[in-house]
Amino acid sequence: MKLPMLGIINLIHETDEMGVLTQGRCLATLPFGGRYRLIDFVLSSMVNSGVQKVAVFAHTKYRSLMDHLGTGKNWDLHRKQNGLYVLPPAIEDQNDFARGDLYHFYRNRDYFAHGPHEYVVICRSHMICNVNFADVLRHHRDQGADITVVCKANSGNIVGTARKVKVDESGRIKEIQDHFGRLSDEVVSMEMYVMRKDLLIDLIETSLAQGCDHFLRHAINSRLDQLKVSACMYDGMLGVVNNIASYFRHSMELLQPEIGRELFFRPGPIFTKSQGEPPSRYLTGAYVNHSLIANGCEIDGIVENSILFGGVKVKKGAVVRNSIVMHNSVIGEDGSLESCILDKEVQIRPFQQLRGVPEMPFLAIKRKVI
Amino acid sequence: MGRKECVAMLLAGGEGRRLGVLTKDLAKPAVPFGGNYRIIDFTLCNCVNSGIETIGVLTQYQPLVLNQYLGIGSSWGLDSREGGMHVLPPYVGSNGSTWYKGTANAIYQNLGFIERYDPKYVLIISGDHIYKMDYDLLLESHKRSRADATIAVITVPWAEASRFGIMNIDGRGRVTEFAEKPKQPKSNLASMGVYMFSWPALKEMLIRDEADLGSSNDFGKDVIPKMLEEGARLFTYRFDGYWKDVGTIESLWQANMDLLGDKPGLDLNDRSWRIYSVCPNQPAQYVSPTASVQSSIINEGCVIEGEVYHSVLFHGVHVGEGSIVEHAVLMPGAVVGRGARVIRAIVGDNAVIEDGMRVGRADSDEIEVVGSGERIAEHQLKEVEPV
């Protein structure tokens, strides 16, 4: 269970249309599914696949990221050998900040230089899935590919923004377009790239020497005819979460038990930072139905079709419907929510009524009192 | 090793015979409690929350699960460089191997451990009680009265007094009389089995107690009466919070029930006194459209499709559609099929109650127990009958 592979979670210039939900945090630490953060899915996938050395290339608003990842203990990445590395931007002046990911990879090239790992896998944080990278590496070797991209077919119902991919009969990628492209094939890229480490170093150095600094746009897309780029199809549950509609949609999908079971357990469990919350308390006024409830909640009202994160209080007579309520928020007595997303520690005053629609949920910023 | 003001010695060797099938392969302190915890979490967290971070945990009976659970103490923040938590099993020394004969002997055999920290005070506690107590207040009281030993005491119902070490005290809280499990108790002031000793006094007593061949080497039976007899300064510290000895099926069930209701006797949600345990890493609990849950506490990873009323559910429990669970404790991974009934019962971890089975009765005084991993199916109806 040990893969000769370095893990990279690339948070540089991630697509982010989450509005107030990512005002104070990076997309990678957006809370999801009652007790997780987006980054937990790809990180756990790596760990369960046997990737023992993982670097997270942080970019902006990474305080929550440092807090969440800590020493990597919760993912068993607090090791003497290998382990977890959080690499903030190592820039010389503010202008470097806006430069592409290859520049930031280059600035942290020491991370790649040492160690016996033959391969790398580069991922982003906003793909909600449970992938076995050992299978991807096997595919990569079997195909004799230069680069393997994990892709999802039949992606007609993807709400988040994802790149489209054109694959020929042999499984080779002929074209990659941004989400607004006109490509009609229903295959999207999950932005997970497996390749040899020396090829990556070569791509970084060559591209930068040519004045190009974006990994996909410059290093890969311009070389699709020179490099054998192969698609490895993933057939598990995928949520591309980088806008409000996709966040709401994929959160609500977790309420279907089959989807939740698959995502959280297969092929391996999803790990996260444990909050040490007590079990949730259902009081005499509780009426809960079709909902996911994390630990530490106290429910004395009605909760339907909703997701409650840790430590949420739903007071007597309060009603929470079709909503997502993050950690430690309080719904006051006889308050009501319909299609809302409340960030952490929001307080809804007694008798307050808030209403959104599923296509455009009402958003409340962290610590707001309404 | 730096000097520590106070070292705690936690007696966790309890066999817990009266818990029957629940302690078949498990030491009593490792019995699951309160939906998310094991009994020992409460004393460990009392130490951590009181600022005592050097703890020796004395194990003996069926220690496998307990040792695995404790690990290096990281779940309680006790994996520190100096001090922290150390598991102390009986061992083979130059005089041969000896099991811990009694509570006092167990501490005696680990004098070396305590000496390494050279403390001023030693706190003796056990891992089989449920309570939240600030040991720092006990220590303050011990220092104030310049005592050799201070015993934490609680007022118990007269009817139960004969189960405990009972004492009489004078106006200043000094112990005048002590009787271990008296048939005719003279008071209802009971020892909680929580002792704060001044280290020199304790060390001397333990050495003398060990030399006394007639002694059963027990704190309650031998050491405390001897100290009283010799006129040592024995004081009491009165505790008036929630405290429960969970030594029997009935009391274990009752202590779980005490966590329920809108104003529980023991509040697990108190953020100023957190109780930590090992995280089971399960997703959030799912309550289905066919479910109904009230007056209960439910842990992560549960899937509820039936009715759960006034019950405690540990992580990963499944309650099928049409089932009713009332006044029950379901331990980790227990499965209740469809159309089953579990009333006034404790169901062990990973036990399976198959479709339509009934466990426990509403009109019974007894609490029905299903052992861990047991399967209640139609063809083996012992005390169980189909609905």
Protein architecture, described:
The complex is a heterodimer of chains A (370) and B (387). Chain A has 370 residues and is an alpha/beta fold. Chain A has 2 domains: 5-265, Alpha-Beta Complex (Spore Coat Polysaccharide Biosynthesis Protein SpsA, Chain A); 281-364, Hexapeptide repeat proteins (UDP N-Acetylglucosamine Acyltransferase, domain 1, 3 Solenoid). Chain A contains 9 helices and 28 strands. Chain A has helices at 38-49, 63-69, 101-107, 110-113, 133-143, 197-209, 215-220, 244-253, 257-265; strands at 5-10, 31-32, 36-37, 53-57, 83-87, 119-123, 127-128, 147-152, 164-167, 173-177, 188-196, 229-233, 239-240, 280-282, 287-289, 291-293, 298-299, 302-304, 307-308, 313-314, 319-321, 324-325, 330-331, 336-338, 340-342, 347-348, 353-355, 362-364. In chain A, strands 5-4-1-6-11-8-12 form a 7-stranded mixed β-sheet, sandwiched between helices. A 5-stranded parallel β-sheet of chain A has the order 14-17-20-23-26, with no helix packed on it. Chain A has a 5-stranded parallel β-sheet with strand order 15-18-21-24-27, with no helix packed on it. In chain A, strand 4 (53-57), helix 2 (63-69) and strand 5 form a beta-alpha-beta unit. In chain A, helix 3 packs across helix 6. The longest helix of chain A is centred in the middle third of the chain and has 13 residues, at 197-209. Chain A is elongated and about 65 Å long. The mean pLDDT of chain A is 93. By secondary structure, chain B is of the alpha/beta class. Chain B has helices at 40-50, 63-70, 103-108, 111-117, 135-144, 199-211, 219-229, 249-257; strands at residues 6-11, 32-33, 37-38, 54-58, 84-88, 92-93, 96-97, 121-126, 129-131, 149-155, 165-169, 175-180, 189-198, 234-238, 243-245, 285-287, 292-294, 296-298, 303-304, 307-309, 312-313, 318-319, 324-330, 335-336, 341-347, 352-353, 358-359, 368-370, 375-376. In chain B, 49% of the residues are buried. Chain B starts with 5 loop residues before the first strand and ends in an 11-residue tail after the last strand. Chain B is built from 8 helices and 29 strands. Chain B has 2 domains: 6-258, Spore Coat Polysaccharide Biosynthesis Protein SpsA, Chain A, CATH 3.90.550; 286-376, Hexapeptide repeat proteins (UDP N-Acetylglucosamine Acyltransferase, domain 1), CATH 2.160.10.10. The chains are: A alpha/beta (370), B alpha/beta (387). The interface between A and B is large, with 36 and 35 residues.
